[in-house]
Specification:
The protein has a single domain (about 5-105), classed as OB fold (Dihydrolipoamide Acetyltransferase, E2P), CATH 2.40.50. The strands form 2 sheets. The protein has a 6-stranded antiparallel sheet with strand order 1-2-3-9-8-5. The chain has a 3-stranded antiparallel sheet with strand order 4-6-7. The radius of gyration is 13 Å and the shape is globular. The protein contains 4 helices and 9 strands. With about 120 residues, it is α+β, with helices and mostly antiparallel strands. The protein starts with 7 loop residues before the first strand and ends with a helix. Helices cover about 20% and strands about 35% of the residues. It has helices at about 30-35, 80-85, 90, 115-125, and strands spanning about 10, 15-20, 20-25, 40, 50, 55-60, 65-70, 75-80, 100-105.
């Protein structure tokens, strides 16, 4: 189980786990629950340059379509093909198996993101 207190969070409900110069990005359980059963995930190609706050893909559920916003700037170095093949993973395991993309980032790329307490306060407020 991922230690949720070590993650950073965006106000758009993405989580970020940083390991050196690589950020792994997914959507939170709060977002997955709000979307409902996810049936399709569209992700960017490896090599795509992302700007913080811009759309990098979308998640489609039986209820709606939601855009995915990049919480960091950088270059996509990997996408999670398992989620593309089985979007339901986002609902069943949003913090483990259902990461979406990995991005090569610069130092300070997570500045301004929320810690777990800040994110919980956002979702409860």
């Amino acid at each position: 189980m991922t230690d949720l207190s070590t993650l950073k969070y965006s106000e758009e409900h993405e989580w970020v786990a940083v390991d050196g110069a690589t950020a792994t990005i997914g959507i939170t359980d709060f977002a997955a629950d709000a979307l409902g059963d996810i049936v399709f995930v569209e992700l960017p190609a490896v090599g795509t340059e992302l700007t913080r706050g811009t759309v990098f893909g979308e998640a489609e559920s039986t209820k709606s379509v939601s855009e995915l916003y990049s919480p960091v700037a950088g270059t996509v170095v990997e996408i999670n093909e398992a989620v593309v093949d089985d979007p339901a993973l986002v609902n069943s395991s949003p913090f483990e198996d259902a990461w979406l993309i990995k991005v090569e980032i610069a130092d300070g790329a997570t500045d301004g993101l929320l810690d777990r307490d800040g994110y919980v306060a956002l979702t409860e407020g």
